[in-house]
């Protein structure tokens, strides 16, 4: 069963590709290193915003009503994803747990949550890392919990690098994820030299000719190209804005350094440098 890209809610190529129970079983089995049986019930409950005709999260689904999996695809490193997933999981539970069950006296067992990020951006990233919600908590020195007491709230996201050459065991076991990774890698390679629209078109044509996501790409053709172009354009703009913001931050640090009382040695090191020169060496 193929995914229907032209659906009521606008989504990404990633979520459109991984939108059937069969492919989600394959994806989850590859990531977890287990074999989910073909008769396991996969119920897709990805969040969407009917008002704005768009998806809110990339993928969420339950397996046999025992585990609820939230998967996000990222092409840039975002350390705020645990906070976003915290908000998503609340809405997913609200959807799958009947209202009357939430207020009954007896304990209602709920699917165990699992949070996964699949990364295929250009920045260096280890094969696997964990992001924790608690890292974002503000310092509460003097107000903190008793020493050794568990945090009242934690959420751990497992981040997997799916770029070519990383996590080969996962990519070998999931044909769709491997071929998606190849497509995105091909686009990024071309985009170093040519505009995004050209790099997307060339990469999609190459994949079709070499039987890589061929059925999916042929069936949805120009719509997939348009979606990829829009996604990558938005990411490029966001990256430029981030870098511009980082540049302003460095200038601010440099200005603060020049305004501080410094030791003679430090003054000698930066004497004659402009704000921009100092900003370049600020890490």
Give the structure's gist in a few sentences.
With 283 residues, this protein is of the alpha/beta class. It has one domain (13-134, 152-281). The chain has ten helices and eight strands.
Describe the overall structure:
By secondary structure, this protein is α/β, with parallel strands linked by helices. It has one domain (13-134, 152-281). It has 10 helices and 8 strands. The strands form 2 sheets. The chain has a 6-stranded mixed beta sheet with strand order 1-4-5-6-8-7, with helices on both faces. Strand 2 and strand 3 form a beta hairpin. The chain is globular and about 60 Å long.
Overview features:
283 residues; alpha/beta; 8 strands; globular
Helical content band:
40-55%
Number of domain units: 1
Multimerization state: single chain
Uncertain segments of ≥5 residues (pLDDT<50)? 1-10, 260-272, 278-283
In total, how many beta strands?
Answer: 8
Total DSSP helices: 10
Mean pLDDT: 82
Strand content: 5-15%
Shape: globular
Give me the Rg, rounded.
Answer: 23 Å
Report the structural category: alpha/beta
Largest sheet: 6 strands, mixed
Query: How are the strands of the biggest sheet laid out side by side?
Result: 1-4-5-6-8-7
Span of the ends, CA to CA = 50 Å
Sketch the topology as an H/E string, one letter per element.
HHEEEEEHHEEEHHHHHH
């Amino acid at each position: 069963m193929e995914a229907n890209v032209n659906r009521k809610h606008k989504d990404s190529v990633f979520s459109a590709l991984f939108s059937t129970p069969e492919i989600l079983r394959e994806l989850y089995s590859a990531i977890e290193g287990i074999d989910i049986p073909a008769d396991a019930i996969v119920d897709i409950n990805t969040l969407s915003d009917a008002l704005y005709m768009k998806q809110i999260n990339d993928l969420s689904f339950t397996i046999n009503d025992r585990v609820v999996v939230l998967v996000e695809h990222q092409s840039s490193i975002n350390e705020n994803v645990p906070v976003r997933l915290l908000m998503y999981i609340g809405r997913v539970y609200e959807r799958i747990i009947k209202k009357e069950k939430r207020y009954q006296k007896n304990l209602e067992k709920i699917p165990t949550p699992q949070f996964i990020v699949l990364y295929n951006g250009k920045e260096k990233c280890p094969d696997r890392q964990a992001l924790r919600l608690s890292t974002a908590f503000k310092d509460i020195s003097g107000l903190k919990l008793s020493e050794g007491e568990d945090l009242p709230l934690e959420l751990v996201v497992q981040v997997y690098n799916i770029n070519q050459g990383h996590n080969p065991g996962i990519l070998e076991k999931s044909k769709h994820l491997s071929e998606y990774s190849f497509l995105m890698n091909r686009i990024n390679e071309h985009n170093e030299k040519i505009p995004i629209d050209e790099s997307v078109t060339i990469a999609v044509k190459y994949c079709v000719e070499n039987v890589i996501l061929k059925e999916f790409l042929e069936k949805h053709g120009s719509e997939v190209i348009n979606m990829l172009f829009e996604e990558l354009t938005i990411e490029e703009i966001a990256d430029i804005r981030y870098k511009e913001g980082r540049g302003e931050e460095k200038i601010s640090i440099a200005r603060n350094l020049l305004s501080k009382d410094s030791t003679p040695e430090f003054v000698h090191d930066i004497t004659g440098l402009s704000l921009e020169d100092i900003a370049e060496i600020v890490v």
